[in-house]
From TrEMBL:
<dbReference type="InterPro" id="IPR004161">
    <property type="entry name" value="EFTu-like_2"/>
</dbReference>
<comment type="similarity">
    <text>Belongs to the GTP-binding elongation factor family. LepA subfamily.</text>
</comment>
<dbReference type="InterPro" id="IPR013842">
    <property type="entry name" value="LepA_CTD"/>
</dbReference>
<dbReference type="InterPro" id="IPR000795">
    <property type="entry name" value="T_Tr_GTP-bd_dom"/>
</dbReference>
<dbReference type="InterPro" id="IPR038363">
    <property type="entry name" value="LepA_C_sf"/>
</dbReference>
<dbReference type="GO" id="GO:0003746">
    <property type="term" value="F:translation elongation factor activity"/>
</dbReference>
<comment type="function">
    <text>Required for accurate and efficient protein synthesis under certain stress conditions. May act as a fidelity factor of the translation reaction, by catalyzing a one-codon backward translocation of tRNAs on improperly translocated ribosomes. Back-translocation proceeds from a post-translocation (POST) complex to a pre-translocation (PRE) complex, thus giving elongation factor G a second chance to translocate the tRNAs correctly. Binds to ribosomes in a GTP-dependent manner.</text>
</comment>
<keyword id="KW-0547">Nucleotide-binding</keyword>
<dbReference type="InterPro" id="IPR031157">
    <property type="entry name" value="G_TR_CS"/>
</dbReference>
<keyword id="KW-0472">Membrane</keyword>
<keyword id="KW-0251">Elongation factor</keyword>
<dbReference type="GO" id="GO:0003924">
    <property type="term" value="F:GTPase activity"/>
</dbReference>
<dbReference type="InterPro" id="IPR005225">
    <property type="entry name" value="Small_GTP-bd"/>
</dbReference>
<dbReference type="Pfam" id="PF00009">
    <property type="entry name" value="GTP_EFTU"/>
</dbReference>
<dbReference type="Pfam" id="PF00679">
    <property type="entry name" value="EFG_C"/>
</dbReference>
<dbReference type="GO" id="GO:0045727">
    <property type="term" value="P:positive regulation of translation"/>
</dbReference>
<dbReference type="InterPro" id="IPR006297">
    <property type="entry name" value="EF-4"/>
</dbReference>
Amino acid sequence: TPAEYIRNFCIIAHIDHGKSTLADRMLQLTGIVDAREMRDQYLDRMDIERERGITIKSQAVRMPWTMEGQAYALNMIDTPGHVDFSYEVNRSLAACEGAILLVDATQGIEAQTLANLYMALENDLTIIPVLNKIDLPSAQPEKYAQEVASLLGVEPEECIAVSGKTGAGVPELLDRIVSEISSPEGDLDAPSRAMIFDSVYDIYRGVVTYVRVKDGRLNPRERVAMMSTGSSHELLEIGVIAPEPKPTAGLAAGEVGYLITGVKDVRQSRVGDTVTSASRPAPAPLEGYADPKPMVFSGIYPIDGSDYPALREALDKLRLNDAALQYEPENSVALGFGFRCGFLGLLHLDIIRERIEREFDISIIATAPSVVYRVITDGGEEVTVTNPSEFPDGKVAHISEPMAKATLLTPSEYVGTLMELCQQRRGNLQGMDYLSEERVELHYDLPLAEIVTDFFDQLKSRTKGYASLDYDLEGEQEADLVKVDLLLNHEPVDAFSAIVHREKAYSYGLEMTKKLRNLIPRQQFEIPVQAAIGTRVIARETIRAVRKDVLAKCYGGDVSRKRKLLEKQKEGKKRMKTIGRVDVPQEAFVAALTSE
Ligand code: GTP
């Protein structure tokens, strides 16, 4: 298709505002999926995505659409829907000329949508505002059209009202995509450059890479090079998704499609990288490439130690499809052998944790998430700390912690409680905008460490679920942080060490000592449970001694019953960890790490 008849667009929407449903309706109306084959949410392939209702991996579908007798190719590029994947969202947007801003007409715009809208505007995309779910009696398209229009600086009449469910308004929307979004530009004769906006591992075909060709042309069987690494590969197949992969005789400037080179790992085909021809390489890559950088770290341990090799295998497999996942072996006195893992954020951690448990059937426990600190010791040495165990002993000269620029969107009645929450979390108010009388956008600078510890849950429970949050990482700040250790009978329990703000050290110590006292069974001697900063104890609880005589219950002669009881106790001992001469059932550690 000549570039002038191509339109590349994506849909920006908050979770549940109906992106998948609308995409499905478009596939059906353009005739590439017939109603019989139509299953809900055709584009969301992974089960987890469907169940959790989030789109993790973006894809691109080509749809034919005829307007005023002219045939067009509409490429719909799916964007992931969560903060942790904002770099992937950014690259998907960079593959488009326009975006549909999809807003649920019963809810209005959300923080997530705003953040992605700002990103689309930075990428100079044409925005088509759309109000969805107008079939619902509770829909208020006029009210939210006002809100969206004032945000975009357009007239409310420019918002188009649709229902992804019934299909109402969707043909008009397809027409507007053709008439309002500009056709892609690019130099057909220049050396080829294509931007990777997604890459997905497929067990049968290896890595499938999604690209937007910016200049020149890519042809099947030619050798291509990845510009960030210089590695080159033969193009085994190139084509478009419509809606199944369909090989073509190449892709030219302006087109969107997929390519397969036989690489086995998404790290060899990275989002944001530029693909060029190996025989006539472009002099410079496209702008905007960045390595994925894990920001949140956590130890992941099998609950049953014999699952350790299986856990390693699971991580190896998951990594094929996830360029941002990092891990290395680690071991803990309390939890045994496991892995220190790096993630883009909390949701990323959650997804990996769930996939390990569900797809690989391994029960695991994760230690409290930690961010990346830069510590300068008194000796002037700089240490990167992603794990409390790496925190230098003794005095430190300087600690920097990562910061986030957070946007909170809330009904105005909850402004007070949210400000209080942000205050407690060491936030700095940067500004406040009223989107309408009832809805307020708050801007805060917040330490990332404060966001990764149940901030989101707090936000939701304080606002009955009505507020939403989005954040971008930006910069770092000096912070007064200390490492708090938990000691059992004077010996540290490594899995519970944490780096916390000095002002919060005391309450953390109190909370954890209480928790452990309640979870660890009494033993035959008294056990102190302490929290300490260095050698200074800041909290203490005591587990009182008990004489545990399992045989006391058996009156007299029943020998076999006694033996059974003794064996049962021995069995239990196997699952015990001994710390400071104290026998602790692993379940106690697991419980202490999970119950919030
Ligand atoms: P994620 O994939 O989780 O980002 O969600 P999404 O934005 O793709 O939303 P999805 O299409 O899954 O729709 C969310 C819910 O809204 C589903 O229960 C849909 O059935 C419903 N829904 C979507 N569009 C409409 C609509 O036009 N009218 C009505 N009544 N319901 C809709």
